[in-house]
Amino acid sequence: REVKEEIGIGLEAKQLTQIGVFEAPAANEAKHTVVATVFTYDGDTIEPQMAAEIAELSWVSPDQPDVVLAPLLADFVFPAINSKVS
Question: Could you tell me which residues are beta bridge partners of residue 40?
Answer without folding.
Answer: 17
